[in-house]
Amino acid sequence: MFESPEQLPRHIHFCGIGGAGMSALALALHERGFRVTGSDREETAVTRELREKGIELALVQQAVPQSPPPGLVIRTAAMPLDHPEIRDALSRGLPLLKRSELLGLLGRRPHSIAVAGTHGKTTVSAMLAHTLHAAGADPGWFVGAQLQGLPAGHLGGSDLLVLEADEYDRSFLTLHPGHLLVTRLDWDHVDIYPRPEDLYEAMQELADRLPEGRILQQAHADPESLPWRPGAGSACVGRAASCDWILAGDGEACRLRHRDTPDLDWAFRPPMAGEHNRLNAALCLAWCAERHEELGLDMAAVVRGLESFPGLRRRLQTLWSNGRRTLIDDYAHHPSELAALIDSVREMGYRRVTVIHQPHTFSRVEAFAEETARALSAADRVFTWPVFPARERPLPGVDHRSFLPWLGNHPCARAVDDWDGLSRALLPLGESEVVVTAGAGDLYHIHQRLADLLARA
């Protein structure tokens, strides 16, 4: 349909424009002078921002614009082909691409950097984009979350382009990157990958597209214990002595050195709490260190840029605090992510940790109920909120109570059905208490009420 970005039509319509990945693409193209229109099902902070930037969008999803019609329609992977708006585009013969296909087209650059993995890819993508930007490299980037101080999408003016490579729906297989960073990889998206092996096979298919030696992988333990390795020519970043890049230190004082090259050695201050975020920062720094001569990067500027990373929305994000109590929001919705989140909050020094978890999809609850309960049990109090179904229909006997059989010995764990139930269950609140909302759904609807409750109690 289109062989290069230069062939894209000047009017592009986004169906589901309010999603993180869709809005990033829409904003970047709008910035470049394209006429961008879109639709979504509800008003959000993202859709309001798009309007403020001058993008036309409707909160009705029945038909794409009639006059003038767009030259290209982009749909989110969550929108099926039988959706009314997509049916309208197809009936009128309008060119149609999935978001990932447009991303793959824009990503045809010599130094496009795909960041893949089931945990941490958004944070690493954002860290790397911010670091390269702060170091003066003029990169482009597309990140599936709102960055602090930078747009989520930007085309840049160099050959560098950071792409968050989403494994859902095998979307990352539309990419042809020049480099690949792999974060922590666990079995997930069980509706797409019925077996862990299915996910690893898709990862290998992506890895096979890259030039030899252009893959850098994160290891949270010994590299030999990783469930998937890309094969010869790749390098590994982690704590183990067998890693190519070895991370040492803790808290605010870390060091990254190359196992076989003594001159490749840098001290840095991790910009976010938690061991997983120290490893995320190390992965970014290692990639820059491997390529700094080839790309003309000043490593002192790279380190300063990494250390100045301000974070991103919904990743360990402090929403409200009065010095005694704090409200934090995080996207964690997989057992490994929930465990890492609670460890990070503990590291921040709070005496009591309360987690409100909204499960994301019924299939994930069914597959990981026991593992999720085990992760949540590390909190002092656990409240589970009704499942956010996303694209799924309910499964018999699967809901937010499915974790309770494995939380039976926990001193305070219960399922709540609505705000009234939650607000009663939260009281009394202690001193030095942090309340954490965790999930990839719509818990943001109760954030203001939670902040008001924390302020009054």
Task: Describe this protein with a few key phrases.
UDP-N-acetylmuramoyl-L-alanine:D-glutamate ligase; Protein-Tyrosine Phosphatase, Chain A; 3 domains; ten-stranded mixed sheet; 457 residues; Rossmann fold; globular
Question: What is this structure's SSE topology?
Answer:
Layout: E1 11-15, H1 20-31, E2 35-39, H2 45-52, E3 56-58, E4 72-75, H3 84-91, E5 96-98, H4 99-106, E6 111-116, H5 121-134, E7 140-142, E8 153-154, E9 160-164, E10 179-182, H6 196-207, E11 215-219, E12 235-238, E13 245-250, E14 253-258, E15 265-268, H7 275-295, H8 299-307, E16 317-321, E17 325-330, H9 335-347, E18 352-357, H10 362-376, E19 381-384, E20 413-415, H11 419-426, E21 433-438, H12 447-456
Parallel strand pairs: 1-2, 1-4, 2-3, 4-5, 6-9, 6-10, 7-9, 10-11, 11-12, 12-13, 17-21, 18-19, 18-21, 19-20
Antiparallel strand pairs: 7-8, 13-14, 14-15, 16-17
Helix pairs in contact: 5-7, 5-8, 7-8, 9-10
Describe the 3D structure:
The protein has helices at 20-31, 45-52, 84-91, 99-106, 121-134, 196-207, 275-295, 299-307, 335-347, 362-376, 419-426, 447-456, and strands at 11-15, 35-39, 56-58, 72-75, 96-98, 111-116, 140-142, 153-154, 160-164, 179-182, 215-219, 235-238, 245-250, 253-258, 265-268, 317-321, 325-330, 352-357, 381-384, 413-415, 433-438. The protein has a 10-stranded mixed sheet. A 6-stranded mixed sheet has the order 16-17-21-18-19-20, sandwiched between helices. It has a 5-stranded parallel sheet with strand order 3-2-1-4-5, with helices on both faces. It has 3 domains: 5-98, NAD(P)-binding Rossmann-like Domain (Rossmann fold, 3-Layer(aba) Sandwich), CATH 3.40.50; 107-307, 3-Layer(aba) Sandwich (UDP-N-acetylmuramoyl-L-alanine:D-glutamate ligase), CATH 3.40.1190.10; 317-456, Mur ligase, C-terminal domain (Protein-Tyrosine Phosphatase, Chain A, Alpha-Beta Complex). It is built from 12 helices and 21 strands. The protein is α/β, with parallel strands linked by helices and 457 residues long. It is globular.
